[in-house]
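Anyone up for a design puzzle?
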């Protein structure tokens, strides 16, 4: 299988309505444990809400709209994305209302509200710039997993640099658009969640502290952002390794060890995927020794 086919497979299975299925499944499983006992009825309720309003309805409109416009499954034309994004906003918000009516776990309710708002932000950005919906769609549920599971949740972000490679290789997005989608999604999800949790009186006792969440996000985005900037502006291998060495020391000395481990995992993944991608991928020359 050549690299383009691999990139296409990755892109297909990380399409936002698809990647939400396994990630929301995990979220619903975690939320369904009460005092160490798995509540099956709660799980079914949460899973049905998330499956219908975060996956099935958004996916249905994407498929319908792509066929109607006779375009590709990614709806690559920026102007054609407005209707699916608007439907997504509505779908997520209906999910919020259904969650409230059914008295579902407030974590899922707030998360769907964050999804609705984040999609609105993406819609506004899309009017001027084609930010990556794929990386935004990945970062939302991973952000939720960070809130729930801390470092274990953050490790799911190993898909982030892989997805950046996929979208850039397929020429669906520029490097800036692919990187920015994730940066936006991670930060907005976590910050909005804390804001709404406070407003709705949701207990944060079992949620990863905000400062730790921000550190995990910085550990996730650090190397992809550095690679993205250097690939555009300086294209210096020496600069990359110097900056990485500085980041290595900063994360090792000033952050919890779990944050440092997340930084190492994401950085190594970014470097490996860059080397595998070959010289046609703009990160390659920044990480591959002569």
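Challenge accepted. My sequence:
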């Amino acid at each position: 299988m050549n690299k383009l086919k691999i990139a296409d497979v990755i892109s297909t299975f990380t399409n936002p309505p698809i990647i939400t299925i396994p990630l929301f499944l995990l979220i619903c499983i975690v939320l369904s444990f009460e005092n160490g006992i798995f509540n099956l009825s709660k799980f079914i309720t949460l899973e049905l809400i998330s499956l219908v309003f975060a996956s099935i309805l958004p996916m249905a409109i994407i498929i319908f709209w792509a066929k109607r416009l006779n375009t590709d499954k990614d709806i690559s034309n920026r102007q054609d994305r407005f209707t699916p994004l608007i439907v997504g906003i509505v779908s997520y918000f209906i999910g919020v209302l259904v969650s409230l009516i059914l008295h579902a776990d407030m974590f899922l309710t707030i998360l769907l509200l964050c999804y609705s708002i984040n999609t609105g932000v993406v819609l506004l950005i899309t009017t001027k710039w084609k930010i990556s919906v794929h990386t935004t769609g990945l970062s939302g549920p991973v952000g939720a997993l960070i809130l729930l599971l801390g470092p274990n949740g953050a490790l799911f972000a190993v898909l982030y640099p892989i997805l950046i490679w996929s979208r850039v290789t397929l020429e669906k997005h520029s490097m800036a658009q692919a990187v920015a989608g994730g940066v936006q999604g991670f930060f907005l999800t976590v910050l909005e969640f804390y804001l709404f949790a406070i407003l709705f009186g949701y207990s944060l006792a079992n949620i990863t502290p905000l400062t730790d969440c921000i550190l995990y996000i910085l550990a996730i985005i650090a190397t992809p952002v550095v690679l993205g900037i250097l690939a555009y502006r300086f294209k210096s291998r020496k600069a990359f390794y110097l900056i990485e060495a500085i980041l290595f020391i900063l994360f090792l000395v000033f952050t919890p060890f779990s944050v440092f481990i997340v930084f190492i995992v994401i950085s190594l993944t970014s470097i490996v995927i860059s080397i595998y991608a070959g010289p046609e991928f703009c990160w390659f020359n920044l990480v591959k020794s002569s």
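A detail worth pointing out: The longest helix spans residues 40-69.
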